[in-house]
Amino acid sequence: PITLAEIEGGAAVAWFRTGPKLIDEQSGLRVRAIDPVSGEVGDPEAIEPARTSLVEWIHLPILGATVVAILMIVFFVRSLRQEPVTKLPTGWEPAPLSRRLVALAIDLAPIAVAVKIATGSSWSRLLVPPALVIDTEAAVPAFALIFLTVAVTGVSEAIFARSFGKLVVGVRVIDARTQEGARPSIVQTLGRNVFKAVILQLPVLGIFTLLDPLRQGIGESVSSTAVVRRIARVHTAPIG
Q: Where are the alpha helices (DSSP H) in 120-213?
């Protein structure tokens, strides 16, 4: 049996539903079970203070401020344009949202598998948007997935104007200010993908893609780019 006199620092005995326990502060707060018959004390287990509801939800005002800041940036950049983009270059049309989602899934899939293997993370932890995760450490795999995906697709778009996923579904990124639908510049590609990383962390911001007639999300609006596909040409046979 152990006595409180043998414990260095503060200690207390408390009765829980499972029996008496010894609580002390040696090298951090810890608890040890006490056998009520023999008085033997079990091995110590570290305990952490429970989070308060305020701590759990403190990130929500930060998310709200982030959304407002992004909106202000978008409206400010749009106001600086001398000629707002109101239509796409001839021969192009906005890429359907379904194709863009499939392209994103194709780009994410191999990197998600690699990150899962490297970190040993579960799929649920890997695919939850980091902005919605309270525990910063638990969000690391998702952060890694987003960073690597944006880096790989950004380089591909800078060189080929499309990622592998976009190539598969038949869409690409263009400079929406040009008449011929030219490849976007490095600066445009960088700006678009910076906001893409933000949207992947907070998917609710993707709603702007649905609201815009040209399907330009925040990243496309700021960078004057658009995700498009070729308009199918219909050939009609001559009559007679």
A: 123-127, 140-160, 164-169, 186-201, 207-211
Specify the amino acid at residue 24: D
Pair 209, 215: CB distance under 8 Å: yes
Query: CA–CA separation, 161 vs 201, rounded Å?
Result: 23
Cross-strand partners of 173: 227
Is residue 145's pLDDT more than 60?
Answer: yes
Order of all β-strands in the sheet with 45-46: 11-16, 19-24, 30-33, 45-46
Q: Which amino acid is at 192?
A: R
Residue type, 84: P
Pinpoint the alpha helices (H) of 13-169: 53-57, 59-80, 97-119, 123-127, 140-160, 164-169
Given the structure tokens 């200690």, which residue do they identify? Answer: 11
Which residue, 204, 188, 170, is CA-closest to 98?
170
- Which tokens go with 65? 């401020």
Q: What is the DSSP letter of 12?
A: E
Evaluate the CA torsion angle 143, 146, 149, 150 in order and state its sign. negative
Token pair of 183 as six digits:
């490849």
- Taking only the tens place, the pLDDT of each residue in 56-74 is 555 555 666 666 676 666 6
Q: Report pLDDT for 68.
A: 66
Residue 217 reports pLDDT greater than 50: yes
Axis-axis angle for helices 140-160, 97-119 (nearest 10): 130
